[in-house]
Amino acid sequence: MSDQKKTALVTGGSKGIGFGVAKTLLKMGYNVGITSRKLQAAEEAASELSEFGEVLPLEADVRSYESQQQAVEKLVNQFGSLDVLVANAGIGKFGSIEDMSPDDWNTTIDTNLTGVFYSVKASVTELKKTEGYIITISSLAGTNFFAGGAAYNASKFGLTGFSQAIMLDLRDKGVKVSTIMPGSVATYFNGNEPDDKDAWKIQIEDIGELVGDLLKMNPRTLPSKIEVRPSRPPKK
Q1: Closest by CA position to 111, among listed 64, 69, 164, 179
Q2: How many Å apart are CA 119 and CA 135, to the nearest integer?
Q3: The overall pTM is greater than 0.85
Q4: Which residue of the set 65, 118, 152, 188 is catalytic?
Q5: pLDDT per residue over 1-60, tens digit each?
Q6: Belongs to which family (predicted)?
Q7: CA 32 to CA 12: how far, in whole Å?
Q8: Percent of the chain with pLDDT over 90
Q9: Is 152 known to be catalytic?
Q10: Residue 93 and residue 25: Cα distance in Å, rounded?
């Protein structure tokens, strides 16, 4: 390990946006830890990513604070520091309030909102040491509500507000916070199988590039909330 290399933790980094972000960070010279609820998924992704740099696969569930603490501890033990947290892990449960079960509601809120709180809370002490960066992955659904989105909208509206509040909490400690709010992204989200039909969507490497741009920005400047959408969506 080089003492000069920085380290990033990407939650939900085994596929989708998290995978794209991890790949970008590795190409930028970061050591990267990626988490998944299933260690095998994290290990398979790490094997694919390893050609770009050093990757630590971690089994961790954002719905457990203890699990997030353990992930951060393992990462710091491996690489020596934590410089960037990308709180990406998330799910989508959609349906009318008449049909939504309490379990679907709780799972969505626990993953998309409370899970980010746990990831940030577990990381903040180490990030203060390095004057690091927290990047949360919210959604355009964090400001735009839609039918069938009660749980998802609530989680992402909450995440956007949470991210902006902790930005104010932490900026005088030297820790920067930004939230990225993507529209349609070509991922496996909500049962989708990415293929040619998704060519018009934001691609995972585009979100990775955006994360990279944030990290390269002069530290005097803080883009706190970034909306990003497909430039040419299909006409309805």
Answers
A1: 64
A2: 11
A3: yes
A4: 152
A5: 445 699 999 999 999 999 999 999 999 999 999 999 999 999 999 999 999 999 999 999
A6: Belongs to the short-chain dehydrogenases/reductases (SDR) family.
A7: 12
A8: 89
A9: yes
A10: 29
Polymer length of the chain: 236
Contact 33, 42 (CB under 8 A): no
What is the dihedral angle through the alpha carbons of 38, 41, 43, 48, rounded to the nearest 10 degrees?
Answer: -160
Which residue's entry shows tokens 């970034």?
226
CA separation, residue 101 to residues 78, 94, 105, 108 (Å): 41, 10, 6, 11
Contacts (Cβ under 8 Å, ≥6 apart) of 57 = 14, 33, 34, 36, 39, 42, 43, 45, 46
Strands 31-36 and 7-10: parallel
- In one-letter notation, the amino acid at residue 133 is Y
Does residue 235 surpass a pLDDT of 60?
Answer: yes
Burial of 233: CB neighbours in 10 Å, binned 0-12, 13-18, 19+ = exposed
Q: Strands, E, within the chain: which ranges?
A: 7-10, 31-36, 55-59, 84-87, 133-137, 176-182, 225-228
Query: How far is the C-alpha of 141 from the C-alpha of 181, rounded, in Å?
Result: 8
Question: What is the token pair recorded at 98?
Answer: 């008449």
DSSP structure string for 160-209: HHHHHHHHHHHGGGT-EEEEEEE-SBSSSGGG---SGGGTTSBPHHHHHH
Please return the burial class of 79, using the count of CB atoms within 10 Å of its CB with bins 0-12, 13-18 and 19+. Answer: buried
DSSP at 234: P
| Token output for 196 | 């040619």
Look up the CATH number of domain 7-228: 3.40.50.720
